[in-house]
Amino acid sequence: MHNDHFSRHAQQVLTVAHGRDPSSDPSIARSWLRCLEDYHLDPAQTIAPTVLEHGRLLESRERLQQVLQIAGNEMNSLHQQLSGAGHAVLLTDARGVILNCVTARPSAGFSSAPGCGSARLERSL
Questions:
Q1: Which pLDDT band, with edges at 50, 70 and 90, does 125 fall under?
Q2: What is the predicted pLDDT for the residue at 10?
Q3: Which domain holds residue 114?
């Protein structure tokens, strides 16, 4: 079932990116096409994230503390604008390390939590 979800998602990405779904949002199609063509991402490939040690995450957050302070209110505002859409708003550094995340909690509206409880370092492209 888990693999079936990724297969359906990969097929949807390819269908939308190549313009074969007229009901799709053109901005989503352009974004997915960029991912495919410019970054050579494969939507069918699943790669486990690299989890950072807590100390490395804190170092990353400390380096960008001023950005985190400025971005906090904007992230909350964006999340509220997307309310009900099942989205999370992430702020990453240049290496893809999640520095802050605003996401809905089932019982408490939304929350702003550093790294949403985890940190990821995406593979280099």
A1: very low
A2: 92
A3: 50-121
Q: Are residues 57 and 99 in the same domain?
A: yes
CA distance 29 to 23: 11
Residue 51's pLDDT band (boundaries 50, 70, 90)? confident
Q: What crossing angle do the helices spanning 26-37 and 2-17 adopt, rounded to 10°? A: 100
Which residues, in sequence order, are CB contacts of 21 under 8 Å at separation 6+? 12, 15, 29
- For 31-96, give the DSSP string: HHHHHHHTS---TT---PPEEPPHHHHHHHHHHTHHHHHHHHHHHHHHHHHTTTS--EEEEE-TT-
- How many C-beta atoms lie closer than 10 Å to residue 92's C-beta? 18
> Which of 90, 63, 96, 66 is closest to 76 using CA atoms?
90
